[in-house]
Structure formats: C-alpha cells, structure tokens
Design brief:
This protein is an all-alpha fold. Helix content is 78%, strand content 0%. It has one domain (18-86, 98-209). The chain has helices at 3-15, 19-36, 42-59, 63-84, 102-129, 136-154, 160-177, 181-209.
C-alpha cells in the first residue's frame, strides 16, 4: 500500500465513521487526559469509551480488543474504588503514584507474557474457526500490553504509561487496517498524551519517593 492509497483509505474511513465510534474516541481521549492529570474522572469517562468499544471490536472481528475493553470496564470500576479511598484523618487519597519494585516488574512481565500467549492461542483458533479477518499476533500484542497497563494504572504505578505506549503504537496500524480510521487517529492522539503522562507521572513518582 503506497502513500496515495493510505491517504484515500484515511479520508474514506473518516467519512464512514459512525456516531458510536465518534463518541467512543472522544471519551477515550478525554479519559486519558484525566489519567495524565491523576484525576479520578479518568474512570467514569473511560467507561463510556470501553463499553462502546466492546461493540465495535466484536463487529470488526478484533476479539482480543473486545476482551480488553471488557477487562477495561471491570478494572475501571475497581480503579475508581481504589482511587476514591481517602485517609480518614488527612482526607487525602490513600493511593499515590510510585515506581514498580523489581518484584513488581517481574510480576507485570509474567502477567503480560501469560496474557499474550493465551490471547494469541485463542485468536489463532478463532481465525481458523469463525473469524478469518483476525490478526492474532498484532491483536494479542495490543491487547496484552493494554491488560498490563490497565492493571498498573489502578495501582497508580508509573510503569503503566510504558505499557500504554506499547499499546498505542501497536493499535494505530491495527485499527487502520480494520477500517476504523478515526479510532486509529485516536491512538495517535493518545500516543502524544502518553508521552505527557510519562513525564508527569515520573515527576510525581520521584516526589513521592522522597517523602
């Protein structure tokens, strides 16, 4: 596919963007922006995005991404609860942004590998059985990194943004190929916000480490 073909597919995809995808994209961008700010609104707004994308992912045979968004929905409720907890004396949030320990790094790497293998195997079977348009390796990569990033986000771990970085990079071409051009653009925007999140959370984690 040359540049001209990519451009025409991009324009055509934008013209075919439906209201569900449009709302989901806007909610996704706004939600991640609140995440960068460590604002609890990341979760209620994020729920709009995840619920809509469960439908869109199933429709586009992105079954790994559908599972991710179901997982996002559950973890958003869990994260909302954790982030809302406050110290009874100081009335401040109990959870603070921190760096992962070596033990936590090993745990998240094992978490990622386990989900990647499970998703890749499942998607490979689905591709043969009923979803020939599935792209197992790419879908599993975008999904497994997202699973890991979301898990760490609920715990306010700085490394969540590293996993989101991998998710965004993998998702840009994946959704473009599937015809969800506006969603692909969303991941470009999220990639930019992601860099800001990395910087902001690194700064806060450093401050919390010196307390």
């Amino acid at each position: 596919m040359n540049i001209t073909e990519i451009y025409h597919q991009f324009i055509s995809g934008l013209q075919q963007t439906g209201p569900i995808e449009f709302i989901a994209v806007i909610a996704g961008i706004v939600g991640v922006w609140f995440g960068r700010k460590e604002n609890i609104l990341v979760y209620p707004i994020g729920l709009i995005n995840t619920v809509f994308y469960i439908y869109l992912s199933v429709k586009g045979h992105l079954l790994g991404e559908a599972s991710v968004n179901l997982y996002y929905t559950i973890m958003s409720i869990y994260g909302w609860i954790l982030w809302a907890k406050k110290d009874k004396i100081k009335h401040e949030a109990i959870l603070h942004i921190t760096f992962s320990s070596k033990k936590e790094w090993i745990q998240q790497l094992l978490f990622f590998v386990a989900f990647y293998i499970a998703l890749f195997a499942s998607l490979t079977w689905a591709k043969t059985a009923f979803a020939p348009e599935a792209i197992p390796w790419a879908d599993a990569l975008a999904s497994a990194t997202a699973y890991t990033g979301m898990w760490l986000m609920t715990k306010k771990k700085f490394e969540s943004w590293l996993w989101w970085l991998a998710t965004n990079i993998a998702s840009i071409p994946l959704y473009f190929i599937k015809g969800y051009v506006f969603t692909s653009v969303q991941f470009v925007v999220l990639l930019i916000i992601n860099i800001g999140g990395l910087i902001a959370w690194h700064r806060k984690a450093e401050l919390n480490r010196t307390r």
